[in-house]
């Protein structure tokens, strides 16, 4: 018998463990291999086999997904080692209506998903990353990595982040990477996928919405959209409007730091961050 790859070995073990009858490869990402599988009466499921280099971080997210029990998120049926057996969802993402002129509807749907994810639940999963730790790249970046004309933006984003962490609020488990294209349409409504598994201030959960959906900087950099989104999230979720905008600005700075470290363009964050800072100042 020829040597199997790690993915093939994990797949054949999963097929036996969960009595799966059919598997179709769907995607290979930098973090995982994904298969569509069938199991008897249950029509379709997804198998996500984590790559060793990211299994600690992705495993933390998978345990959080399991803890949500399908409420606002994709259902995890079981986890074994680095293999996650979960609900198959093949609807479009929340980015689609947002990019196609229905952004207000998308903002309301986003708020509903967050309300479901943040519903009080007993205990919490082990090993969640503290939110402050997630921000290390923002605090550790050398300002000289930023374009000369944008260094004041970096300084302000980092300063706001420090201020937010100096005045902590109640903390809870956070998806930690919630954006429009991480929310999928299903027959159960809009469902979140791919959480990071953080623990901290609930205001942070909305931060990524302000710099998304991907590929629409004219939309998300619009000051009117920023204000309308802050109004909706604050009203629908009972969150502090200034703190929402503060985390949005801080996260935009953090994302730019990650992109600079990876050699990627930060043009999107340079478009939105000045307007987030301005909205924060006015809040």
For this entry, give a set of tags.
single chain; alpha+beta; Aminoglycoside 3'-phosphotransferase, Chain: A, domain 2; 5-stranded antiparallel β-sheet; 3-stranded mixed β-sheet; 11 helices; globular; kinase; phosphotransferase activity, alcohol group as acceptor; Kinase-like_dom_sf; Aminoglycoside/hydroxyurea antibiotic resistance kinase
Task: Describe the overall structure.
Helix 9 (223-237) packs across helix 10 (241-262). This protein has 283 residues and is of the alpha+beta class. A hairpin with a 2-residue loop joins strand 2 and strand 3. It contains eleven helices and ten strands. The strands form three sheets. It has a five-stranded antiparallel β-sheet, sandwiched between helices. The protein has two domains: 6-87, Phosphorylase Kinase, domain 1 (2-Layer Sandwich); 95-282, Aminoglycoside 3'-phosphotransferase, Chain: A, domain 2. The termini are far apart. The chain has helices at 6-17, 55-68, 95-99, 103-117, 131-134, 136-140, 151-166, 217-220, 223-237, 241-262, 267-282, and strands at 22-28, 32-39, 42-50, 76-80, 83-87, 129-130, 172-174, 183-186, 189-192, 198-200.
């Amino acid at each position: 018998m020829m040597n199997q790859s790690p993915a093939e070995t994990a797949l054949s073990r999963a097929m036996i463990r969960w009595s799966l009858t059919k598997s179709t490869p769907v995607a290979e990402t930098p973090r995982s291999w994904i298969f569509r599988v069938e199991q008897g009466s249950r029509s379709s499921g997804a198998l996500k086999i984590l790559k060793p280099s990211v299994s600690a971080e992705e495993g933390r997210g998978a345990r959080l997904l399991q803890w949500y029990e399908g409420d606002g998120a994709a259902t995890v049926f079981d986890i074994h080692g680095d293999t996650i057996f979960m609900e198959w969802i093949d609807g479009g993402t929340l980015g689609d209506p947002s990019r196609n002129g229905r952004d207000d509807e998308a903002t309301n749907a986003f708020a509903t998903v967050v309300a479901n994810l943040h519903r009080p639940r007993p205990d919490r999963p082990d090993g969640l990353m503290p939110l402050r730790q997630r921000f290390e790249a923002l605090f550790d970046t050398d300002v000289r990595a930023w374009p000369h004309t944008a260094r004041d933006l970096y300084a302000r984003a980092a300063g706001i982040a420090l201020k937010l962490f100096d005045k902590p609020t109640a903390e809870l488990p956070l998806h930690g990477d919630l954006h429009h294209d991480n929310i999928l349409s299903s027959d159960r409504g809009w469902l979140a996928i791919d959480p990071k598994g953080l623990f901290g201030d609930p205001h942070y959960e909305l931060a990524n919405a302000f710099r998304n959906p991907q590929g629409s900087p004219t939309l998300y950099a619009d000051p009117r959209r920023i204000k309308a989104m802050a109004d909706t999230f604050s009203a629908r979720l009972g969150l502090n409007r200034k703190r929402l905008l503060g985390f949005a600005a801080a996260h935009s700075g953090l994302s730019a730091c990650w992109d600079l470290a990876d050699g990627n363009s930060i043009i999107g964050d340079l478009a939105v961050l000045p307007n987030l800072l301005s909205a924060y100042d006015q809040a």
